Amino acid sequence: MQVHEIRATDFAETGQPGLASALPDAGTVDLVMRKAIYMTAAALLLAGTAPAYASGGADKGPVSVGVIGEGLKVKEVRAVLKGWYPGAKAEVFVVRGRERIQTVGSWKATDSVEYGGHKFEIASWPVGRSFRHGDRICSEFEHRNERPCVTIQR
Predict the structure, then answer these.
(1) Which of 2, 60, 91, 96 could lock onto 148 through a cystine, CB 3.0 to 4.6 A?
(2) Max Cα separation, the chain?
(3) Average pLDDT over residues 7-25
(4) How much is the pTM?
């Protein structure tokens, strides 16, 4: 990307009267920009930091897992299977290291959804709890080998 500096003299050369005098000089622009930067920094310091809302997802073939949360706290987990498989069942679980340590959402029948001409099977579980940094939340569907995982991070 190239940045072009525009000077008042550039407009004066066009022969259009009044344009050169309508532009502020470089010192005024610098002062205004500096004040804007200081005011923004002060507002951020006074307001504090807002919570970081995080969500993520992972796919393995037609199977997906999606996590909605804030930091290490997970609010909801969704498992999605691309295609039309009425009666499909899914579960979500936590993996720490290489071991499956607990079930987050037990086996549940999916809902069939059509969106934008595409068909999906979807199941969701409210979670409302925190996990360790580095834990992975994975989804699994009956009769499928794919198990995508999302890593929970600060």
Answers:
(1) 60
(2) 77
(3) 47
(4) 0.63
